[in-house]
Write a structure and sequence with these properties.
Elements lengths: L2 H11 L17 H15 L2 H20 L16 H13 L7 H14 L11 H9 L3 H18 L12 E11 L4 H7 L15 E9 L4 E9 L5 H8 L7 E5 L6 H7 L5 E7 L5 H9 L3 E6 L3 H5 L3 H5 L4 E9 L5 E6 L9 H9 L2 H13 L10 H25 L31 H11 L4 H4 L9
Parallel strand pairs: 1-4, 4-5
Antiparallel strand pairs: 1-2, 2-3, 5-8, 6-7, 7-8
Helix pairs in contact: 1-16, 1-17, 3-7, 4-16, 7-16
């Protein structure tokens, strides 16, 4: 996959939200190679498909700003340094741009200096970080959640119709939750992790939140997210909430923490396929019996446990039925034995090996969490409020979706290899010709190209956009 194409398009076209902060001295690189790269990129980026996508994106955002719910009618009505469209661009830049060592002031200065230099906001003055804090407090994090939904809807409208983005004609979505470390403020502690603190035995100083994400593993694109407290909710409950964002014709992938009779029963209330990893020991009696039998592929019937029945009324208990599932033995390279549970019953259409290969695709969501936490250091939040933290957790997904759309539209095909994550060599930018090397580290590429390609935006972008305000 030529991931850098999408990053370049964002770098030069998406309203300047990725300005250079620590630029690389191009005099020390092969300038001829840089020119060849830019020329090939500019040819791809000016294709009718790409231009059509940007046209739809630019028309989507202004209408969205008109529909944003405001806690007070007078918010964002006066002429300020940060009107609503500019505020959204600034928050996207804070989340996905700059260096990990840069503070808010440096990032704001870099963004507004580049915007003035390129004619994007020719008369805009760089706001102080206190002005940004006041402005973002007027905008609910739910606005970013809604914008994410709209951008994802646009993604599925314009994404290329290629077989490589589906499995047996079905989209595949991975579900997973991860704990994010938050700033140690009383507000965040009370909201997400009241049991945290050094005064609590066995607890750390910093509070944590449970972030649950649903990820399209073939298009390599996040489509939804929830942020909830550590206690009082779990991955299963949050996964059921995220199901409403998905089409009915899809396969849902779950890791070993999800299997339970109640969760599987809830999944079967909707006509979706699912595939989940289940341990071979200390699990359902039917699963343990299958493991002892030595079979590789078969069918089992799950019965509700006594613990599950205790939480139901007598009337609800009478409606409980055994659940038929297909079960597949899974032996890992280290010899660990586990099983896969699914409702993909047709063994001819969904062979045993193809189902196993599909499950391993779930690792794409683990890579996404790694990129957020390690590559972009999303846990270095620019806000210490509940609203601000959630704004950034959704903003990073918006940037990722837009980058993936641009990438997919820029190349005739993307290389997809199961179980491999190709890292990018920094020398990649100075080779004589771009090589179609697969790259899954989206955020690493954003950083790389935002540093290697300074001051070229004005040479390729014509016309205005909704951020001219």
């Amino acid at each position: 996959m030529l991931e850098y194409y999408g990053i370049l398009s964002l770098r030069f076209t998406l309203f300047g939200i990725f300005p250079e902060v620590n630029t690389v001295d191009l005099s020390k690189t092969h300038l001829i190679s840089v020119k060849v790269t830019l020329h090939q990129w500019s040819t791809e980026m000016n294709s009718p498909v790409i231009l059509s996508f940007y046209s739809q994106l630019i028309s989507l955002l202004p209408s969205f700003c008109q529909t944003v719910d405001k806690s007070k009618k007078e918010y964002f009505t006066r002429t300020r340094k940060l009107p609503l469209p500019r505020l959204i661009a600034t928050l996207l830049h804070l989340t996905a741009g700059g260096s990990r060592h840069d503070g808010v002031d440096i990032k704001l200065g870099g963004l507004f200096n580049l915007s003035r230099r390129n004619g994007l906001w020719p008369k805009a003055q760089t706001p102080h970080r206190s002005a940004l804090t006041k402005a973002r407090n007027k905008l609910s994090w739910e606005a970013f959640a809604e914008l994410l939904r709209k951008v994802v809807d646009l993604a599925y409208q314009v994404f290329p119709q290629r077989d490589e983005y589906t499995w047996r004609g079905l989209s595949a979505f991975a579900f997973d939750g991860s704990k994010y470390t938050l700033p140690a403020t009383p507000e965040l502690r009370e909201t997400f992790d009241p049991d945290s603190g050094l005064d609590k035995p066995g607890k750390g100083h910093y509070p944590q939140a449970l972030v649950n994400t649903v990820f399209d593993v073939f298009r390599r694109m996040p489509v939804g997210r929830t942020v909830c407290p550590i206690k009082g909710s779990g991955e299963r409950e949050e996964a059921l909430k995220l199901l409403d964002l998905l089409p009915l014709a899809c396969v849902c992938l779950f890791d070993r923490g999800y299997p339970s009779y109640g969760f599987i029963h809830a999944l079967l209330q909707q006509p979706r396929y699912f595939l989940m990893h289940c341990p071979a020991q200390s699990t359902f009696p039917a699963v343990e019996s299958f493991v002892r039998s030595g079979q590789k592929d078969g069918f089992i019937w799950l019965m509700p446990s006594d613990m599950f029945k205790r939480g139901l009324t007598k009337a609800e208990r009478k409606t409980l039925k055994s659940i038929k599932l297909r079960i597949i033995r899974l032996t890992h390279p280290d010899g660990t034995l586990s099983v896969l549970l699914t409702n993909l019953f047709d063994k001819k259409t969904f062979s045993c090996q193809s189902v196993i290969d599909l499950y391993y695709r779930r690792w794409a969501i683990e890579n996404h969490y790694r990129d957020e936490k390690v590559g972009f250091e999303i846990e270095r939040f620019h806000s210490k409020t509940v609203n601000g933290v959630q704004q950034e957790l959704f903003a990073i997904l918006i940037v990722c979706v837009i980058a993936r759309i641009a990438t997919a539209l820029s190349v005739p095909s993307e290389a997809v290899e199961t179980g491999q994550c190709h890292k990018v060599d920094w020398r990649f930018a100075t080779r004589n010709r771009p090589t179609p090397t697969p790259c899954y580290n989206l955020f690493f590429m954003i950083r790389m190209w935002s540093r290697y390609m300074p001051n070229y935006r004005r040479n390729f972008v014509a016309g205005g956009c909704f951020f001219h305000r």
